[in-house]
Amino acid sequence: MPHQMSLSTRDVCLIAVMAALCVSTNYAMFGLWNVKLMDLFVFVSGFCFGSLAGGLVGTLTWAVYGVLNPLGFSLPIWIATCLSETLYGVGGGLARKFGLRVPDISDIGRREHWVCSAKIALLGFLLTSAYDFLTNLVCIIWAPALTVFVGAVPFAVAHAGSNLFFFFWGGTALIMAVQKLSLRGGDKSG
User: Fold this and answer.
1) Domain residues of the chain, as ranges?
2) For residues 3-36, b (16+ Cβ closer than 10 Å) or e, as one string?
3) Average pLDDT score over residue span 139-151
4) In the predicted model, is pLDDT for residue 1 greater than 90?
5) 91-102 average pLDDT score
6) What residues have CB less than 8 Å from 54, skipping those under 6 apart?
């Protein structure tokens, strides 16, 4: 019999809370285009609660924010962002599954902490690059390529640069905090 993936009531609650955190911070940071904490929160969800939960947080976040986006709604872009945001959650789950170790809280400021922060920042940067590539590819279909390229470059730089910063300075600490607060300590690995 094949392995079935299921979500407990607790998992559903965690997904809803993390998605609400993502959506609310998106609105709070609306004036900073392509600078959002959402991607970090989705990655942390995947790392702490597994790829399935992380992917669902990303999809649910864009399902809400994309429909109620202050800039308007576009079905193809909405679908692209819903699907592409899952990269962060799945990436977080896979990072943990394949051995990314977050140090103990007692290691803050030590070499292990900084190495982990650098690894998480690099993952965040790579995931952001993939996200921007995929979502901009969809935009090319709906706008002239030159317009998308010229318009996309500053947004991609802001997105990748801010995520590099957020993932480096917040990734390790946020994972430690969520694992400490979690009753099960983030025991799902993928």
Assistant:
1) 9-181
2) eeeeeeeebeebbeebbebbbebbeeeeeeebeb
3) 65
4) no
5) 96
6) 42, 43, 45, 46, 47, 86, 88, 89, 90, 91, 92, 93
What CATH class has 9-181? mainly alpha
Q: Using an 8 Å Cβ cutoff, are 96 and 178 in contact?
A: no
* Predicted pLDDT at 149: 60
pLDDT on residue 186: 43
C-alpha pair distances (Å), 137 with each of 42, 80, 91, 134, 148: 22, 9, 20, 5, 9
Q: Kindly report the pTM of this predicted structure.
A: 0.89
* Cβ–Cβ under 8 Å, residues 130 and 83: no
Residue 107 host element (H or E): none
Residue whose C-alpha is closest to residue 23's, from 53, 67, 61, 55: 61
Rounded to whole angstroms, the Cα distance separating 98 from 94 reads: 6
Residue pair 91/43 in contact by the 8 Å Cβ criterion: yes
In eight-state DSSP terms, residue 182 is S
CA 93 from centroid of its chain's CA atoms: 11
